[in-house]
Amino acid sequence: MGTLAPSSLVAGLLQLLPGPLLRSLDRWSHRRAVSRQLQRQEAWLARKAPATPPAVPLLSQYKLKPWRD
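and the corresponding structure tokens:
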């Protein structure tokens, strides 16, 4: 659950963090965003997918007709 904070306060606190920590937080945030996007995509595909797969019509077998002797 998020809390509201003035953006200038948050920006000031972020400037105080060391570079390696900022980079690791950025990597974590990116991984989280990618995983959330995949979850949303899978949920969308599950909603759009039909309940049963469509029946694939069987191809008629070619029957060789006997040639005249």
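(Above: one complete record from the training split.) Helices lie at 7-16, 19-48.
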